[in-house]
Every structure is written in structure tokens, then in C-alpha cells.
């Protein structure tokens, strides 16, 4: 096994960054050498996060690329969209490996990024260089590369739920409808009216309907899998819970299949992949069954009356949707077992 890799976390005061710290502290092959903040450098991280008093590296560093390059081998950029666009090229040019958690390098087409994110795209050469890190689908592309773009939270749950059926031709790609719900931590730590307690508690609201920035990401990957253009209907909703995404997908089947046919197909597709668990026929997953873990759990319900299938996929948005998947990608980049440092059972209840 290789020697320990030195890692730095930019955005370590955000939800993704704090979750990276939680897992990396116990990673057998990684050592956190720098926790970085653009707004609180020079202060101990435990000042804002008292639950982190036991982490070895306490003082928050500033975002100084040369200093990061002098200390670290690999950087996790858990930074907002628009920030990674500018930061990641500098880190790569300084010789660092990067796993970026933002949406800035997921879309290969810069014009599409600008349309959906309403921000300038990163230079095309860096978009090309980024390997899209949906580990269970593209994991074989990750070994030895310097730069992984971590998938979005909604796309992770959705794509893992759809790809085996689409690839096998079981579902009609023109019929896909995705109804996705997220806990409020998906919006990050910053406060807004959208996630304000009085606005979301005992409430359930749709947002960005047909306008969500994850639509082109989902369509890009489904198009790649299907070998032709795929468009989807995608509705996102905010649920009054802290963590968790449930993506419920509907599609017309191209033949007559049973729940068990889908279970068998998905178990075969995800054979050997430690983080996708396919439920037995008739058993549907719940968000609490993956909380705090890197699992994606998937269940099915075939409706013979309508000839449609309902696919239900759940993840913890902060883990499999962000920090956990980022560590899984680091493991694959380094040629390690993909579940290294991630073997936690979900927190229940
Ligand atoms: N939350 C989730 O479930 C998921 C998040 N993501 C993506 O991961 C990234 C991080 O998300 P999340 O942790 O939730 O977001 P947060 O808003 O919780 O944290 C983002 C952090 O980025 C830092 N930051 C802000 N501006 C800058 C800057 N100019 N330079 C350097 N750092 C900066 C801030 O820390 P400071 O002020 O200390 O520098 C802040 O704490 C985002 O791109 C998000 O879209 C992806 C999948 C799921
Ligand atoms: C609940 C909630 O607000 N979720 C966010 C997910 C943001 C995110 O992860 O953004 P990128 O993947 O594009 O970086 C949203 O729907 O925009």
C-alpha cells in the first residue's frame, strides 16, 4: 500500500468541508495537513465548530495556492460554484491533485454551464481534463488522473437509479420523469429565506422546476449511456429534514418486466461496488437508512397496469452526494480500495 497522502480542504467551514474532515480524520491513507477558509484564516476551526476540537490541524489557513502546494499533495475544493472555476486551474497548475465538489467542471460544454449556472465557465482545457467522478459508472477512468469533478447530489441519486435500466434498454429514454426531494443541508451552510426555519419547518416546497442546474448534468450522463440525446423532466423539492435525498423516477418500460427482473439486473450491474445496495423486490428505501453513510439504496415498483416502473433511490446528500463520494474518488485516483475510510454503517434512527 502507498504512503499517506497529504490533503488540504478549501471550504472547510462549509457542510461539505466539515464532512470531509469527519471522514478523513479516520482515513488510513490520508492525513489532513491544512484546513482552509477564505473568511476565518488564523482562527482555530474549533472556534466555529466546537465538535472539531479533537482534529489535529486546528488553525485555519488562508487560500494561498503556493502555501497549499508546499504542504499538500491533493486538495478537496468544497467551494461554491463560480469560486472553483477560478481556483481549481491554479491548484492544478501548481501540481496539486484536485477533487472539486462544485458544479463548475461537471458539464463538458461551457456554454451549457453559462446557460444553467448563469456564471462564466472555466476554460475549455480544464473542462476537458476533468473526469466526471460517478464512481460506480466511470470509476475505471479515475485511476492516476490528477483531477476529478465530483457529481452533484441530485444527479448522484438519480443517475445511479436510472443507468442500469437505461443501459440495458429496459426503459424508454423519452419517458423519464424525476421527482427529487432534498434535506436543507443540500443548500449549504449560508442562511437564506429558502432554508430559514420558519419557512421550511412543517413545509414542503418545490423550487427551480424545469430550471435546476442539475438537469444538464443528468442529461449529459444519460445521453452518454444511451448513445443519443436524452431529455428529462426534473422537479426538485425541499423537505424539512437536515440530510437526505430521495429521487423517485418514473419511466415507461420497453417490454414486460417484473420487480425481480430489475433487482437482478441492478445487482449484476453493481456487483462488486460496495456503496450501492439494491433492495429486495417490494422493499423501498428511506433516507434514514443511508444517513451518515456513503450508501445509495435503490428499490423498484413495476406497475403492470401502466407498463411504467417507479425507481426510488436514496443517498445522504452530504456523504454520497458530496464528501463521501469525493473521498471515494480520491481512493480511485490513488488506486486504493474505493471504500477506504468510508466503511460507516448509517446512523439509525
Ligand atoms: N451541501 C451539499 O449537500 C452538497 C454541496 N455540493 C457542492 O459542494 C460545494 C460546497 O457545498 P457546501 O459545503 O454545502 O457549501 P457551504 O456554503 O456550506 O460552504 C462553502 C464554503 O466555501 C467557502 N468559500 C466561500 N467563498 C470562498 C472563496 N471565494 N474562496 C474560498 N472558499 C470560499 C466558505 O468558507 P469560508 O468563508 O470559510 O472560506 C464556505 O464555508 C458547493 O459547490 C456545493 O454546490 C455538492 C453536492 C452536495
Ligand atoms: C437543497 C438545495 O438547495 N440543494 C442545492 C444543491 C446545490 C448543489 O449541490 O449545487 P451544485 O451541485 O450545482 O454545486 C440546489 O438545489 O441548488
TrEMBL record:
Pfam family, one: Semialdhyde_dhC_1
NADP in keyword set: yes
EC number: 1.2.1.38
Semialdehyde dehydrogenase NAD-binding domain: residues covered: 6-145
Subcellular location, principal: cytoplasm
Record has Chloroplast as a keyword: no
Enzymatic class: oxidoreductase
Residues at the catalytic site: 153
Superkingdom as given in the UniProt entry: Bacteria
This protein's UniProt keywords: Amino-acid biosynthesis, Arginine biosynthesis, Cytoplasm, NADP, Oxidoreductase
Catalysis performed (reactions): N-acetyl-L-glutamate 5-semialdehyde + phosphate + NADP(+) = N-acetyl-L-glutamyl 5-phosphate + NADPH + H(+)
GO molecular function, one term: N-acetyl-gamma-glutamyl-phosphate reductase activity
Signal peptide: none
Pathway where it operates: Amino-acid biosynthesis; L-arginine biosynthesis; N(2)-acetyl-L-ornithine from L-glutamate: step 3/4
Subcellular localization, as worded in the UniProt entry: Cytoplasm
InterPro entries: AGPR, AGPR_AS, AGPR_dimerisation_dom, AGPR_type-1, NAD(P)-bd_dom_sf, Semialdehyde_DH_NAD-bd
Family: Belongs to the NAGSA dehydrogenase family. Type 1 subfamily.
Job of this protein: Catalyzes the NADPH-dependent reduction of N-acetyl-5-glutamyl phosphate to yield N-acetyl-L-glutamate 5-semialdehyde.
Protein's recorded name: N-acetyl-gamma-glutamyl-phosphate reductase
Organism: Paenibacillus terreus
Gene that specifies this protein: argC
